[in-house]
Amino acid sequence: MTCKWLVALSLVFAALGGGFAGTALAQPPTVTVQKAECFPVADNGVINANVRPEVGGATARLYFRWTETAQSASDRPHGDMYYVDMVPAGGGSYWGIPAKPEPRNDRVEYYVAVVDPTGKVLGQSERQASPVRDDCEVKLSPKQIGYANNLVVGETVAAQEGHRVLGFLCDGVVTRINADGIMRPDEICRGCVIPWWTKEEYVGSALLVPTSSIVINQPPISRSRP
User: Fold this and answer.
1) How many Cβ atoms are within 10 Å of 58's Cβ, its own excluded?
2) What DSSP letter does each residue of 94-157 carry, written as one string?
3) Residue 186 and which of 83, 111, 150, 180 are 20 to 30 A apart at CA?
4) 21 vs 14, 16, 18, 24, CA distance in Å?
């Protein structure tokens, strides 16, 4: 086989490979969210989503914020979105748990996005909104309870850093990730991770969620300070 034939074959394979790669990139994952009937007041709800096809190395994130129904047909949001990483349940299914809504929070807006390790959005669901109700009952599994008691909440804008998750309780919020991807202990909510009414069998059951964020190790606060 001559060099000319080798060059020609190389060009053909390169063209075919580029075509296949272009086809894969042209088909972003389709993300669908099961709308929650409601969220309980001062307790955790759960959001389920499906991703087709799944993308290796990508993460499904649940974005959420406090919103309320305005007089018009549209919702009126309070502040910017926060997010938590979702947990894979197999077969392209995922679940995620936002923080517990405060009593003044009467509606939660949310959507799910698939992001690559750089934070680029590969696919996103439609936005949904569900009411917060006193009579809402949500049954969490022991694994979901462990996750809910150790939430890692991400921020999307710099203004959220150093403040509570707007419209949501501190209970269960342990760690925060700022808009630059820096992970840190929640300096506002750290002292109220597990509430006094948490059942004994669930205390200490934590779910470790992998993350590509940078972790800042802070020294313990001295109890002897005046």
Assistant:
1) 18
2) EEE-PPPBPTT--EEEEEEEEE-TT--EEEEPPPEEEEEETT------HHHHHHHTTEEEEESS
3) 111
4) 10, 9, 5, 5
Transcribe 161-201 into DSSP letters.
TTS--TTB-STTEEEEE-TTSEEEE-TTTGGGSS-TTS-GG
Q: What is the distance between the alpha carbons of residues 151 and 153, in angstroms, rounded to a whole number?
A: 6
Neighbours of 128 (CB within 10 A): 16
Reduced to 3 states (helix: H, G, I; strand: E, B; else coil), residue 43 is: coil
Residue 64 to residues 22, 41, 45, 95: CA-CA distances in angstroms?
33, 15, 12, 13
Instruction: Give the pLDDT confidence of 28-85 residue by residue, as tens digits.
Output: 999 999 999 999 999 999 999 999 999 999 999 999 999 976 544 456 688 999 999 9
- The β-bridge relationship of strands 82-85 and 121-124 is unpaired
What span, in angstroms and rounded, lies between the C-alpha atoms of 93 and 1?
51
Q: How far apart are CA 164 and CA 120, in angstroms?
A: 26
Q: Name the least confident of 24-33, 83-92, 166-175.
A: 24-33
Residue 176 structure tokens: 């925060």
